[in-house]
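can u do me a favor
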């Protein structure tokens, strides 16, 4: 069994490769070529404990992950476990925090490439953590971003994050005093916060904007108001997951603003041509990201193959 660290994942899972992997994974999900359990999330000391399992052509495995925002380390920590399909034996353990960070941003970039206007140049990011960083890198890989606008609860941290992005990406970065100012006239918005309450209203969003709503990964915390959900063309990674665990969608439905039919399709269905995405430049589109096990499995398999080809990782026998 090969064991791969966070450093291995970061070195062996380039964002460009992961964006392509997410496209293939989401197509496979929507095409019925995978099987998966609905993610289970349990309250745990200090945070949450998530369990995800799935089977895809030629492989199967699970992700076990903790989410503790008040901890000293990364908010998401855990492992992706892969099994040898020929023998059933555990074949790899891959650090899950880095997999989650990279594949989540890559999936949003893939959805952005499908749904956002081609000429989009202004990116607004709510948050300044690991997901915000990954999303800045990923969105810049699929659109000619000229300006990134950032908002966070700590102005000092937001400024430091802006300077970091400018140095890394060579893109002009601004810090906004409020969420509304951050997203004003933005072409693309990524919400990557741990907020329990909506940060964005429908009147904050310009026509033609695309939103990646990422921060809430369960029923409960919601980053955008229900009227914004109702006003947009709404897509997500998995229909089953969004209808049962997508907080923003669930809240809008419970208020009677939408029905289940407002979920227009999985992003994989758009990729496969089975569902129409953006129809014109004036529409607001939303991609709701909950994260999916097929994304983790695809990313982990790629890292394992690259590690074996380059001699990375350590091995162990159970």
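np, heres the sequence
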């Amino acid at each position: 069994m090969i064991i791969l660290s966070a450093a291995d994942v970061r070195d062996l899972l380039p964002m460009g490769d992961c964006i392509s992997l997410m496209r293939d994974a989401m197509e496979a999900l929507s095409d019925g070529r995978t099987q998966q359990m609905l993610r289970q999330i349990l309250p745990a000391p200090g945070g949450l404990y998530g369990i995800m399992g799935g089977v895809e052509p030629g492989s199967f495995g699970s992700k076990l992950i903790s989410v503790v925002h008040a901890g000293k380390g990364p908010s998401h920590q855990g492992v992706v476990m892969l099994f040898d399909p020929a023998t059933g034996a555990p074949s790899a353990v891959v650090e899950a925090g880095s997999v989650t960070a990279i594949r989540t941003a890559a999936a949003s970039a893939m959805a952005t490439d499908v749904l956002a206007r081609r000429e989009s140049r202004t990116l607004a990011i709510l948050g300044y953590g690991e997901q915000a960083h990954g999303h800045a890198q990923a969105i810049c890989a699929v659109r000619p971003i000229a300006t990134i606008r950032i908002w966070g609860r700590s102005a000092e941290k937001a400024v430091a994050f802006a300077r970091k992005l400018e140095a890394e990406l060579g893109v002009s970065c601004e810090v906004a005093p409020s969420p509304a100012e951050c997203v004003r006239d933005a072409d693309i918005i990524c919400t990557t916060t741990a907020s329990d309450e909506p940060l964005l209203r429908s009147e904050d969003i310009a026509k033609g904007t695309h939103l990646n709503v990422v921060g809430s990964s369960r029923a409960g915390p919601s980053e955008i108001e229900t009227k914004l959900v109702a006003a947009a063309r709404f897509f997500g990674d998995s229909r089953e997951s969004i209808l049962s665990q997508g907080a923003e969608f669930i809240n809008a439905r419970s208020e009677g603003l939408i029905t289940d039919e407002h979920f227009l399709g999985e992003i994989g269905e758009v990729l496969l041509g089975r569902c129409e995405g953006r129809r014109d430049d004036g529409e607001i589109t939303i991609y709701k990201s909950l994260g999916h096990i097929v994304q983790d499995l695809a990313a982990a398999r790629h890292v394992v193959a690259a590690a074996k080809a380059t001699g990375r990782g350590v091995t162990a026998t159970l």
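The mean pLDDT is 96. hope that helps!!
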